[in-house]
Specification:
This protein has a domain of 182 residues: Oxidoreductase, molybdopterin-binding domain (Sulfite Oxidase, Chain A, domain 2), CATH 3.90.420. Helix content is 11%, strand content 29%. The strands form six sheets. It has a five-stranded mixed sheet. Strands 6, 7, 10, 11 and 12 form a five-stranded antiparallel sheet that branches. A five-stranded antiparallel sheet has the order 19-18-22-23-24, with no helix packed on it. It starts with 16 loop residues before the first helix and ends in a 6-residue tail after the last strand. By secondary structure, it is mainly beta. The N terminus is likely disordered.
């Protein structure tokens, strides 16, 4: 248990006997430890493993209910932010286990509130440069062959609050930094299937996707993405998509910025050029330091964040701890994650949890021995294209200080000598 006065957080990671012996043996070979593995070999008295009958439950527990609930003390919440016309919520990524986000904890981002759409009246129009303009009802979409795939969705503004060198609070959770990220199993129909149904004309090179929200959010998308892996999805994690995620149906563009993955999709128009909507001109475009701008920067670059230990956790004692976190890339698969405990001076390879899938978050783990001094924990990801997650200095050099989106630089956590963990501020160079 954490010492008196420690900030509550997740329980210390339970490391298996085999894993710890293997790690301790390796450390002993390097002259770091000598007795930890030997202690694990001492036999445990049989009586210590026995539980008396008086400790067994004597009363019948609760009976089944129509809707399950989380255990007491395990309640999780999103952090909400809103203004007059738009808002969103941040997923508690520092409290989740594994990589799948429960549907009710998936982050939100919307520009005109959440519309209430009657599924019986829902329609998706596909028109423009097509041979057979067609209106698809929800029941029509469900008649096509369905696909289920695991992919992350990330807002391109995720992490932009720490894209500066000063004035950042140390008391930031991973949720507050990168909580505009979630991973789900999505079920729906391949967009390419629908396009073959309507007959796309050869001159069509883009399509406009428009939502049914009050903002009429619309984005232009190259048609190559439609033929690759784009989907119209109507289910998430085994149930209908939640209204906040686009019910009855949304566009899914795996690995691309969340704003382009239009929710409550009502219209797809095939065109021969981008439409240049508000969301791809005055918004979601990055001014660069040379006076130009990055536009249509759809792909989410490789990124990672350590979720444990992180603020507000307090390490209660010295010894072996498992650093763990998430890594992801819109360019394909993560091929490696490195972890540093000394601010980037030295790096060690972390273990990736299988399966490592295409455009999905990957859990990484690394066994670390804390000796009780200060440490600066960092992680950096590499994907299958060879792209390496940059430092903050590298990203500022490439983009300039005015960049707003795609802040994928290395994050850091400062471990104090008393075990308290804080966000690493501008200490990442």
């Amino acid at each position: 248990m954490p010492p008196r006065g420690a900030i509550p957080g997740p329980e210390p990671t339970r490391i298996s006997r085999r894993t710890l012996i293997r790690a301790a043996a390796g450390a002993a070979a390097a002259g770091l430890v000598h007795t930890r593995a030997d202690a694990l070999e001492r036999p445990v008295e049989r009586g210590a493993l026995q539980v008396g009958l008086e400790d067994a439950p004597q009363e019948v527990g609760r009976l089944p209910s129509e809707l399950g609930s989380r255990a007491p003390g395990e309640e999780l919440r999103r952090v909400i932010y809103r203004n007059r016309l738009s808002g969103g919520s941040l997923s508690p990524i520092h409290r989740l286990e594994g990589r799948i986000t429960p549907a009710d904890l998936h982050f939100e981002r919307h520009h005109g509130g959440i519309p209430d759409i009657d599924p019986e009246r829902y329609e998706l129009l596909i028109h423009g440069m097509v041979e057979r303009p067609t209106v698809f009802r929800l029941a029509d979409l469900k008649r096509f062959p369905a696909e289920s795939r695991i992919h992350f969705v990330e807002c391109s503004g995720n992490g932009n609050g720490v894209y500066r060198r000063s004035g950042i609070p140390r008391e930031l959770t991973a949720q507050m930094i990168d909580g505009l990220l979630s991973t789900s199993e999505w079920t729906g129909v391949a967009l390419g299937t629908l396009l073959r149904e309507v007959g796309v004309r050869p001159e069509a090179t883009w399509f406009l996707a428009e939502g049914a929200d009050s903002a009429h959010l619309a984005r232009s998308v190259p048609i190559e993405k439609a033929w690759d892996d784009a989907m119209i999805v109507y289910a998430q994690n085994g149930e209908a998509i939640r209204p906040e995620q686009g019910y009855p149906a949304r566009l899914l563009l795996p690995g691309w910025e969340g704003n382009s993955q239009v929710k409550w999709i009502r219209r797809i128009e095939l065109t021969d050029r981008p439409v240049m909507t508000r969301e791809e001109t005055s918004k979601y475009t990055d001014p660069l330091k040379d006076g130009t701008a990055r536009q249509f920067s759809f792909v989410m670059d490789a990124k990672s964040i350590i979720t444990f230990p992180s603020y507000p956790y307090v390490l209660p004692e010295r010894g072996w701890w498992e650093i763990r976190g998430l890594a992801w890339t819109g360019r394909g698969r993560i091929t490696g994650v490195e972890v540093s405990a000394d601010g980037g001076r030295t790096w060690q390879a972390a273990e990736l949890q299988e399966p490592v899938q295409l455009r999905a978050t990957t859990v990484f783990r690394h066994l670390w021995r804390w000796e009780g001094g200060e440490a600066l924990l960092m992680s950096r990801a590499t994907d299958e294209t060879g792209y390496v997650q940059p430092t903050l200095a590298q990203l500022v050099e490439a983009r300039g200080a005015g960049s707003t989106y795609h802040a994928n630089h290395v994050r850091a956590w400062k471990v104090e000598s008393d075990g308290q963990v804080f966000f690493g501020l501008g200490e990442v160079s």
